[in-house]
TrEMBL record:
PANTHER family the record matches: HTH-TYPE TRANSCRIPTIONAL REGULATOR RV0890C-RELATED, REGULATOR-RELATED
Protein name, per record: Regulator
SUPFAM superfamilies named among the record's database cross-references: P-loop containing nucleoside triphosphate hydrolases (SSF52540)
Region listing for Disordered, in residue ranges: 206-228
């Protein structure tokens, strides 16, 4: 830690290099906690990006952007968005597990360090990146006679087998020496003390040193001998596998299908079969946690890289790799269908959270289906698109939809949904022409199929394109035509709800405020009845905007806070940026200039994260200018700027808390 802290204080790129299981990630995580708790606060922003779920480089920059919380709504490639947002901010970025992406990480980091003068990058890898001005810090195993023994004794005591007698202390020391002080090997060995004595454990470790590298693939006699720590870890992992019951070994292998963390329900859905019935699976999962093979993190689980690699070798030996990948993809596809079906209802918020948990699983399923079943890949991409767009994954939405559409042809519901979804993603990235083009393609397919729901979606995309580019009457005509043609006696659907919201927005933009308020209130009540949040939050946006235009500033603030609470619950980052501007203006016109300055600063931070060239709807611009002028007049330019920049550079959640709660006083002291 002393070496790492010193290096981070002087160098801009530091790589922790060491073998599997030696503790690189844990050391990096501890360094982050130390930096965050430091009174000097050298870094304004600290971020961690897990790279181990990635299979290739195609989404490397997008993954790092997600880790930074970016939700870029522009046509820029993710690397450009990253450079643009970090810019001159003081940022510490950790990239964990770079070894399978070394050349790509080297390029990404080089571009970032060149463009961002105050960025420091800490990486973990099994080999150096070979980057210019890289400082490499080797992470050795623990000293076998001292630190390793201390760790082993701590872990032994935690499983109810304290090492106290002189004989046991000698056995522990010999075992630590045989395992060469590799922390993961020590953890696995200590976990076995739940079922075996220390003497049995030490004896098994001694006899297991010649385990083969992989099932069915022993090391050739003439191959160079591995370092002792590699043999030690291989021994510990192999021995842990050997001590598992057959069904536990089977589950270990099957769990490697998950690219990131998973829950027990999904594991049961994907990994049951043969001797692994649902009850046995739950029993085996608990046993693997007890043996430190599976890491439990709340109600979710994950495999460490080394454990996953070993399990994948066994999955290949079992001949189940393709079968499990297909089952995993089928399960994810079925969940996406349920999410899409239940969007307009009380489970909407739950599905936003669930699909965010499944983010890596969806990408893994799409990767598999693009090769094996492109039509299913297109359906999956279309099902998750609206969720992903709202949660800021526009680049991924665009990326996978284009790949899936290129691999399929003909006419189908999935293809029509994919075309509409791609048009929406492209439009929200600022591509007006794509919005019009894909709206027309959606309309044609809807007419050919006689699909009223698809006609709603075509009208929504056409109208949203017009609205975002300053043509509210065209947007109103598109929405009203679709709603009139469909009739009035029908249950709300996804498409009709989008069109009703579009009509409210267009009425407001056209200055027909009484009609807009009436329709917004009716739509909001219906959303409350259904338990739906996304549409409801945008009706609150419109009601707040209408209230500002009608000079009802207290009502505007209440609606803006309602909107922001809903947007935070479903992680709609673009919506948060929009809502903060409304709330800031309401605070300013209510005579709360300090909160207004903080809210404008928090809003500016979120607009930078979103990267959108347009700050809200066109009718918001004069209101924003009026609010900013009012706040500056009360505070003075220096006072306003101090609070604005305090929120601009603060933690996102902290800044939101300052401005959304009307009761506690926000921090008004000037930053040093």
């Amino acid at each position: 830690m002393a070496q790492l802290t010193g290096a981070l204080g002087k160098q801009r790129l530091v790589t922790l290099v060491g073998g599997a299981g030696v503790g690189k990630s844990r050391l990096a995580l501890h360094a982050l906690h130390t930096q965050a708790a430091s009174p000097r606060q050298e870094y304004t922003n600290i971020y961690w990006a897990d790279l181990w779920p990635l299979r290739g480089d195609d989404l490397l920059a997008a993954t790092v952007a997600d880790a930074l919380g970016l939700s870029d709504h522009t046509p820029r490639i993710p690397l450009d968005a990253l450079c643009g947002w970090v810019a001159d901010r003081s940022v510490l970025l950790v990239l964990d597990s770079c070894e399978h992406l070394v050349p790509y990480c080297r390029h990404l980091i080089g571009e970032l360090l060149t463009a961002c003068p105050n960025l420091t990058v800490l990486t973990t890898s099994r080999e150096p990146l070979g980057a210019v001005r890289e400082t490499v810090l080797p992470v050795p195993p623990l000293a076998p006679a001292t630190e390793a023994v201390t760790l082993f004794r701590q872990r032994a005591e935690s499983v109810g087998r304290p090492v106290r007698e002189a004989r046991d202390r000698r056995l522990a020391a010999r075992l630590c020496a045989r395992l060469d002080g590799v922390p993961l090997a020590l953890e696995l060995a200590a976990a076995q003390l739940r079922h075996h004595t220390l003497a049995e454990t030490a004896d098994r470790i001694r006899s297991g040193l010649d385990l083969p590298d992989a099932p069915g693939h022993p090391r050739p006699c003439d191959s160079p001998r591995r370092p002792a720590r590699h043999s030690a870890l291989r021994t510990a992992v192999g021995w842990s596998h050997e001590l598992c019951r057959p069904t536990e070994r089977l589950l270990w292998a099957r769990l490697t299908v998950f690219p990131a963390s998973f829950d027990a329900d999904l594991a049961e859905q994907v990994c049951t079969g043969g001797p692994l019935n649902p009850r046995e699976l739950r029993t085996c999962l608990a046993a693997l946690v007890h043996k430190s093979v599976v890491m439990a993190e709340g109600d979710r689980f994950r495999l460490l890289d080394t454990i996953r690699e070993y399990g994948r070798m066994w999955l290949r030996e079992l001949g189940e790799t393709e079968h499990l990948a297909a089952r995993h993809a089928a399960a994810v596809l079925e969940l996406s269908r349920m999410a899409r079906t239940e969007w307009l209802g009380a489970r909407q918020q739950w599905w936003y959270g669930r699909l965010e948990q499944l983010y890596h699983d969806v990408r893994e399923a799409l990767r598999f289906l693009l090769d094996s079943d492109p039509a299913a890949a297109l359906e999956l991409a279309g099902n998750v698109a609206f969720f992903w767009v709202c949660c800021g994954h526009l680049y991924e939405t665009h990326h996978y939809l284009e790949l899936a559409l290129d691999c399929t042809d003909g006419s189908s519901e999935a293809r029509a949904q994919g075309i509409w979804s791609l048009g929406l993603a492209r439009l929200l990235q600022g591509d007006q022409e794509a919005g019009r083009t894909f709206a027309e393609l959606t309309r044609r397919s809807a007419i050919a199929a006689g699909d009223k729901e698809r006609l709603f979606q075509a009208a929504h995309l056409e109208g949203l394109t017009a609205l975002l580019f300053g043509r509210p009457l065209a947007a109103l005509a598109a929405a009203e035509t679709a709603l009139r043609d469909a009739g009035t006696c029908q249950e709300p659907t996804f498409g009709s709800t989008l069109c009703r919201l579009l009509r409210v927005c267009a009425l407001t933009a056209a200055g027909r405020l009484k009609e807009a308020r009436r329709d917004a209130e009716v739509l909001r009540q219906e959303c409350v009845r259904l338990g739906e949040l996304w549409t409801r939050s945008y009706t609150d946006y419109q009601l707040a905007l209408i209230a500002l235009l009608e000079n009802r500033v207290c009502a505007a603030g209440a609606h803006a806070r309602d909107m922001l609470r809903a947007k935070q619950r479903i992680r709609d980052r673009m919506g948060i940026a929009l809502g903060l501007e409304l709330l800031a203006t309401a605070w300013a016109l209510q005579g709360e200039p300090e909160r207004a300055a903080l809210a404008y600063g928090a809003g500016a931070q979120h607009w930078q994260m979103v990267g959108h060239p347009q700050r809200g709807t066109p009718e918001m611009a004069p209101l924003r200018e009026e609010g900013q002028a009012a706040a500056r007049a009360r505070l003075g330019d220096a006072g306003y700027e101090a609070l604005f920049h305090k929120a601009l550079h603060a933690d996102r959640d902290q800044a939101l808390a300052w401005v959304t709660d009307p009761d506690p006083d926000p921090p008004l002291e000037e930053p040093p």
